[in-house]
TrEMBL record:
Species assigned in the record: Xanthobacter autotrophicus (strain ATCC BAA-1158 / Py2)
Ranges annotated as biased composition (Basic and acidic residues): 14-23
PANTHER family noted in UniProt: L-ORNITHINE N(5)-MONOOXYGENASE, MONOOXYGENASE
Keywords, in A-Z order: FAD, Flavoprotein, Monooxygenase, NADP, Oxidoreductase
Name of the featured protein: L-ornithine 5-monooxygenase (L-ornithine N5-oxygenase)
Pfam families recorded: Lys_Orn_oxgnase (PF13434)
InterPro entries (alphabetical): FAD/NAD-bd_sf, Lys/Orn_oxygenase
Gene Ontology BP annotations: intracellular iron ion homeostasis
Amino acid sequence: MTFSESRPLPATRRPVEPKSEGEDGIHDLIGVGFGPSNLAIAIALAGMGDVGVSTHFIEKQQSFVWHGGMLLPGSDMQISFLKDLALPRDPSSPFTFLAYLHEKGRLMDFINQKTFFPSRLEFNDYLRWAARRFDACVSYGEEVVALEPEVSGGTVDVVRVVSRGVDGRSKVRRARNVALATGGTPRVPELFAPFRSVPRIFHSAAYLSNIDTFGFDTHPAPRIAVVGAAQSAAEIFLDLSARFPNGHVDMIVRGHALRPSDDTPFVNEIFNPDFTDFIFHQSEPRRRALIADFKSTNYSVVDADLIARIYSLLYQQKVSGEERHQVRRLTQVTRVAEAEGGIVLDLSIGPEGTEGRAVYDAVVLATGYARDSGRALLAGLEPYVTVGAVGRDYRLATAPGFRPSVFIQGTNESTHGLSDTLLSVLATRGQEIADAVLAARSASGASVAPVRRQMGRA
């Protein structure tokens, strides 16, 4: 028998309802994208009390979902639940993961698990729970296609945010500040680029929405390749091995071995918010050296327990004599072709580059993401903003006479450190941007209620 709270108790402090538009029809802030980054800003503003800031967020997905293509059964977070959207700066916030558990009636059950790492499915549910509080100021199913300056008397006070809905109709909203958080674009290696329209070659970002569409569950022994050597590739490799026990799954890895991520305590301090200050104020060569030194925390690495599970799987296959799955190390794809009934990969194998060939029913590209600072959108604001010139508060440098602030999130690794693309600093970064928006509103002469700044270390 499972004992749990019979019903959640009411929250002790409720956030202020967001205002979706100012009295003049101009938003103080429009967020482009409504994933965890802009959600963290919304939460920070809600926690400030009724300061009269009007916000709106535009999200191209039909509803809030965080990495929906990789919400695999059994996959856990790689970050502590304590680094949620609010707790590092305000442990009493009603938007913490603990508040979510309490409201759902699972707090004691979660505690009994004795873990800092919830499942990815549960953390996505937490994010959706928080996002629903802002439904009144979010437009889902719209994609922002342009940012345009509204020039008056030689100055720009407002940015026009142009979006397009699924029906093809455009809509224009006006904002005094814009926060870009568009996430990464799936990176497709050059050899695979001509095959983007081939259904059985797809990126890991769309893994769950694709893998069940091919009828492999009735296939006697599907052959599937996973290209990549990082966490997503490892998770997919194990998922495919369980999903199709009679199949043949290859993980194609350029290196000699799967490398473990370094999540030891001293190294993990690079994800603390105060490390952002430290790295930002270093010289550019020093920043590059620091980021290169700590690459093993985030790139082309796999959790050690996942590596152990893969090794155990391969070992048990050796014991049984049925080696259906393999990690093909020191292997690179040199050519891709379609053949009747399959995808043909030409391979360079081993240190000598021995030529090989394999035919697969499907190929999953676990090859990461590209982040371009929203250059396509920012092109409409030339020559007012300088792409790549980002301040400590995530604000782009702007020309004289351009009064709006444009904040960039998730693409500032080279200036703000490895945590910029991760969840670790979201609570603090959201507060910093919220403070900047509030300061800009105050500077414009609008009345602003006093704010108690609550910042903390993750």
